């Protein structure tokens, strides 16, 4: 860390009051002499400290840019036409401009998580004190902050210890964002390296935020049996006053729950949430309800069920206030980052605010005090519920039929729809009295509302779809396991070996938002497919919710019939967006706990270990946000491949390997120093899949790693070939690239594969002790 | 030239936009002129009905008559195989896009770089972005879309036309490739 610190060291000091020996005091920095792990080469890495590692990855996984915009309009020279990789007025070319834009996205994402963490930390220190211990799993979790240990080289023990971690992250985000200024960076690869840095910093922010809230709020602590909680519209008792919380920062929701409990209202009121705030509500309060992912915002507000809408931060529709106004539900904005244009009433007496909201004198307020948010929300909900009587804006069936008759079938709605839904045809049928086609769109609709914005008649098309699908909406009653937080050290010990040797076929993390190409059912299908294949399946955020929204023939969701323990065939919900840190942390802990590699400031070695040995794959099937971009970037720097859904192409660049470039797939054998061809494993670092079928085949393929033993590779190949045969109805053409020795060949497919290998003139190679780092070679070749 | 706008209206391209195919003969001429064309077919080709057939059935005829190697993306390979047609390759759409920007790539059949790429049947936004990549980074390559949507990042594209009109156009193209008419 390059910051100047005040540091006092006293060897021995005898005074009248006593004797001091080996006293060290440090202002602004923790000295941890009780942590004996030696410091690695890159504690608190600067922007360029890991540049060489990044370039190794970028050499193999070169960016493929798909510009989403042909011009640059960042300065007054512009607009500059960069078509065909032309240079703009500042000298930047299209590749650098695209990577710059990716960097800006990643910085937004990282800043959002770090800012979230900072707000949480300040609040929690104020409430619990800076010495509050960071207990995230008791004796089961001794490596409490793997990412922070790895990146920063410090071992945080209290809430206060996270301050310097976040200060570092904040400084890095500032420097990173500065590089996006005109005239700062000209190479697309340097921008890409900084994207990776932003991702790594994002993960630091995620971890700091989640371990702080786990420790302070008593969320489930690495608990495989975290409680099963309610999810879905149908789980909400609409006879009660309902408080709806939207966003990602649970602090105001905790204020509400605490006030309810303290004043005996928790039997009388329903508290529910949308997006990650909902997840974190259930980590704090078992009776909290998750309505659904981000895309349920419009449909739930318009249903009229919420009596009060509390908005915190991130992914909150910016028209929530006007939507809530239409159903006569008061809004409380509770974040400095999301004031919604509302008057700041933080310093007013709670009862005065309540009176104004209930009377309608003001439709919404900004309150930047979570305890006051709690008091006001509860009092308003109790008073306004009998007045509102669940006033809704969704139309009646007769109104839909009448309005649909006036539809001009102009196609404007379909052309505005991200999913290209065939809305005009459904409207035509509705005009004829048949709402079935509109109902069919319900599960595919991502709830963006663009159809309504573009309709020349102003028809509330989204509301029509929701009304037509009302039966499905009301039947949404599911169980999801509350976010468990970290993975226990002992769980890592138990599966470290089979993961690293490939005998557990892979670790699949299904994460991210809900911009799905064909609804959330595909997420559920992918999760259960791979859990049934004995992968370790982890979920988080909106994807964790979507995975719960489909039941088996016994009426159970995957969280009910699959184990929540980190083991083969599990289904784990780690928690909200910030809980994604536990997924990266699990990979890091495998290197540390199983392989005994030092973590402390030792990023490159650990990333090299993970990239070559841990068959982890991320799937962000509905990723839409800048935060998702930052989270993905953090996984890229660890060498973990990420697959996105087809909308993910709009992130405008992929990181793709070239399986046909043999020279790209050499590693060093750490035993001998020899270069060894290991095949394209994993083939891509960031890739969009067109369909769920393609994603499934890709997951199995990207789970292969150079370190797989023969047995492990045979297991992984079995899944790859089996899925390929089932979904593509043919055997993969590239098997020869993944078979290194005959021991790799799955026994049940031997004849078939041997024939292909002979046709492809396959030659046996060795299984190395793989590394991309020359310094890791133990014995140089003579 | 006819004025064309993207099917998804907000997907505005930049200063360089696709020329509009106003008659199928343009595509026939481009196909015949190409030294080494390639056809990329996405999964929607098997889902899109054109008269009593699927779009993929037209593509098989087009590939056969034009002697064009085919790359199937996602699970589309199975639809080809069910129709007794073996594509030259099968890979993700972004993967084939990435190879096409490489002027050193010897093509899906190893016979040399491709100079013309047809795209069809990918989700609109996916095709839009991949074509953008090719527009900017593959100056050696011309691209044509065979969907009934205007794709501004292609070199040539139909406008937003009905499926019936698309079927009529494809029939003419296939017929003229067969007869050798220009």
Write a brief structural summary.
The complex is a heterodimer of chains A (782) and B (182). Chain A has 5 domains: 1-31, no CATH class; 37-217, Substrate Binding Domain Of Dnak, Chain:A, Domain 2, CATH 1.20.1270; 233-388, 3-Layer(aba) Sandwich (Rossmann fold); 399-459, no CATH class; 481-775, Rossmann fold, CATH 3.40.50.2030. Chain A is built from 28 helices and 23 strands.
Descriptive terms for the model:
A: 782 residues; alpha/beta; Substrate Binding Domain Of Dnak, Chain:A, Domain 2; Rossmann fold; 8-stranded mixed sheet; 6-stranded parallel sheet; 28 helices; globular; B: 182 residues; 5-stranded parallel sheet; 15% strand
Please compute the radius of gyration of chain A using only Cα atoms: 27 Å
Q: Class of chain B, according to the CATH hierarchy?
A: Alpha Beta
Largest sheet descriptor of chain A: 8 strands, mixed
**Rounded to an integer, what's the Rg of chain B over CA atoms?**
15 Å
CATH class of the largest domain in chain A: Alpha Beta
Oligomer: heterodimer
**CATH fold-level label of chain B:** Rossmann fold
CATH architecture classification name of chain B = 3-Layer(aba) Sandwich
Distance between the termini of chain B: 21 Å
Q: What percent of the residues of chain A sit in helical stretches (DSSP H or I)?
A: 40-55%
**What is the H/E order of chain B?**
EHEEEHEHEHEHEEH
Taken from the alpha-carbon principal axes, the silhouette of chain B is globular
Please, how many helices of chain B? Answer: 6
